[in-house]
């Protein structure tokens, strides 16, 4: 069985980040604060997010622009430490 090759990505690149957490604890402003701290200012309109709520959980989707390949991991590690975060996609 062949292993799938990782696609070539050119940077900067714009990707969606979905953060799922407990509705009473996770706030989108906390996520956006980390995005701005790690990646700097984002494109017009990308500071807006979408939200979807089901039961006790909420998911927020943010579009972010990664300047280089090493930018995503530290941001995701910081987001994972936020109160209420359950999962990231």
Blueprint (SSEs and pairs):
Layout: E1 13-22, H1 28-39, E2 49-54, E3 57-66, H2 72-80, E4 85-88
Antiparallel strand pairs: 1-3, 1-4, 2-3
User: Which strand order do you get reading across the main beta sheet?
Assistant: 2-3-1-4
Shape: globular
Query: On the 0-100 scale, what is the average pLDDT?
Result: 95
Task: Give start-end ranges of low-pLDDT stretches.
Answer: none
End-to-end distance: 27 Å
Number of strands: 4
Give the strand content.
25-35%
Rg over alpha carbons: 14 Å
Range of helix content? 10-25%
Helix/strand class? alpha+beta
Number of helices: 2
The main sheet comes to: 4 strands, antiparallel
* Pattern of helices and strands: EHEEHE
Structure description:
This protein has 89 residues and is α+β, with helices and mostly antiparallel strands. Helices cover 24% and strands 34% of the residues. It is built from two helices and four strands. Strands 2-3-1-4 form a four-stranded antiparallel beta sheet, covered by helices on one side. A hairpin with a 2-residue loop joins strand 2 (49-54) and strand 3. The longest helix has 12 residues, at 28-39. The protein is globular and about 40 Å long.
